[in-house]
Amino acid sequence: MKKWWIVVCVMLIAIGCTRSGEPRELVIMTHDSFDISSDVVEAFESENNVKVTFLKAGDAGEVLNRAILTRNNPLADVLYGVDNTFLSRALENDLFEAYEPPALSDIPTALILDETHHMLPVDWGDVCLNYDVQWFEDENLAPPGTLEDLAAPAYEGLTVVENPATSSPGLAFLLATVDYFGEQGYGEYWRALRENDVRVENGWTEAYYGQFTAASDGDRPIVVSYATSPAAEVYYSEGQYEVPPTASVTAPGTCFRQVEFVGILKGTRQLRLARAFVDWMLSQTFQEDIPLHMWVYPANQQAELPQVLTDFGAQATDPATLPPDEIAANREAWIEGWTEIVLR
What are the distances in angstroms from CA 90 to CA 54, 100, 116, 256, 298? Predict the structure, then answer.
């Protein structure tokens, strides 16, 4: 009888249940911007008899650092939110189990940056310059159309950016300038921006809601944000705006395309449930819930987009991209070079 009960217990643990039938816990480490509908999470929990706990651990870089430091005693079963600027570092540290979910066939090959499938693409978005439409109309000044415009005398003192050492969009924009001007030319470009009185904030919130004229009492009508930000302005205005008060600059080379990934952490005791969670993240139910919560595009091509994003969400025509291994090899040097030029 005791042997029979031991076998049953082992089977229950394998399918994610405790001896008493209570749901097991699945811990998901994410960046602070992670957001999804509670009813979508509850449906997954009910279907899999599991309690999902989300452990928010800072921005993408902080999340990865925490996972590396605790690799021998993982704090979570699954990690979401590492993007292509940190992908190579994540893979080099051998943190994840390889897994090929069924939905992988519905994801464009351009988003599958890890062919070993240790990290799987969940969503993507373009970091772009945004501008205050009304401000430029009032000033009878053409809005910026290229990166070079920001360094022109007419745009002196108009731009706010984020520090690439402390901000994900700030780093993405720095990488766009590296790709556009080259490793030898990006420094000269940033010198020109500094001379043109570019303002630097530590993070997106401080820049967008602290300095951007369309969203604050600030005096900067150009900000580094996202191509989806104009659509978000309409959505959150609760009917105040029928068209966005802001617009994105999406000309070739002006935006950087970010891809965010999910991976199953090695050491998880909930491998079956972790795989189920990854399957769920790539399912249409989850993917169609992403846009209005995190304002990025779903990786699954079968997911339908909300109307506000279809109407007002811009996409870069030819975004800047850099191979993850090149970013990993040069990221710190590029940031240090930027810091020397812009802040010191």
Answer: 20, 18, 13, 20, 22
CATH superfamily for 125-256+320-342 is: Periplasmic binding protein-like II (3.40.190.10)
Select from 23, 320, 336 the least CA-distant residue to 163: 336
pTM across the whole model:
0.87
Q: 21-124+258-312 adopts what CATH topology? A: D-Maltodextrin-Binding Protein; domain 2 (3.40.190)
Q: What is the DSSP letter of 305?
A: P
CA–centroid distance for 298 within its chain = 11
Is the separation of the CB atoms in 89 and 119 below 8 Å?
Answer: no
Strand extents, DSSP E, 142-207: 159-162, 199-201
Q: Mind giving me the DSSP string for 226-255?
A: ETTHHHHHHHHTTTS-SS-SEEEE-STTS-
Convert the pLDDT of each residue in 33-74 to its tens digit: 899 999 999 999 999 999 999 999 888 888 898 999 999 999
Taken in order 318, 324, 325, 329, the sign of the CA dihedral is: positive
What is the 8-class DSSP label of residue 143? P
pLDDT for the residue numbered 3: 53
